[in-house]
Specification:
It is built from one helix and no strands. The protein is mainly α.
């Protein structure tokens, strides 16, 4: 490791204290209603995407489960000695 990594970090005691950003605590204003509607819309989109993802996963599992017996039956038919 180079010597520059071993230097102690000095912090200026005169710096202002960090506070929460305006994004974390917005001030109420004319855009407040629009922002709430956007938030609800975003939550609905995430909820729908989650439901769609779960539905696709269920469908894939169902297809796999239905293929297994068909594959076993086909193997039984083609593995018979009389063929």
């Amino acid at each position: 490791m180079s010597s520059r990594h071993n230097k102690p970090h000095r912090f200026d005691a005169d710096l202002p204290e960090l506070t929460t950003s305006e994004r974390d605590q917005p001030t109420p204003g004319p855009d407040d209603r629009a922002m709430r509607e956007l938030q609800r819309g975003s939550e609905a989109i995430v909820r729908l995407a989650t439901q769609a993802h779960a539905a696709v996963a269920r469908e894939r599992r169902s297809r796999r489960a239905s293929r297994a017996p068909i594959a076993r039956n086909a193997a039984d038919v083609y593995d018979r000695p009389d063929r």
